[in-house]
Amino acid sequence: xxxxxxxxxxxxxxxxxxxxxxxxxxxxxxxxxxxxxxxxxxxxxxxxxxxxxxxxxxxxxxxxx
Length: 65
Ligand SMILES: [Zn+2]
What we know:
alpha+beta; 2 helices; binds zinc ion
């Protein structure tokens, strides 16, 4: 079990904010945690569209909501 260090001080865990797909602005369904740090948000459509690529660069894909 490895500890994950969160470097972003702006991330409010547990607060439900309106999160938008980075591609089209629709409501985000998937949060992608990147191996190099940071994260991306995608709607269901774009999560599937970019899934193969995301699995190469992501450490985790998590459903939102
Ligand atoms: Zn989208």
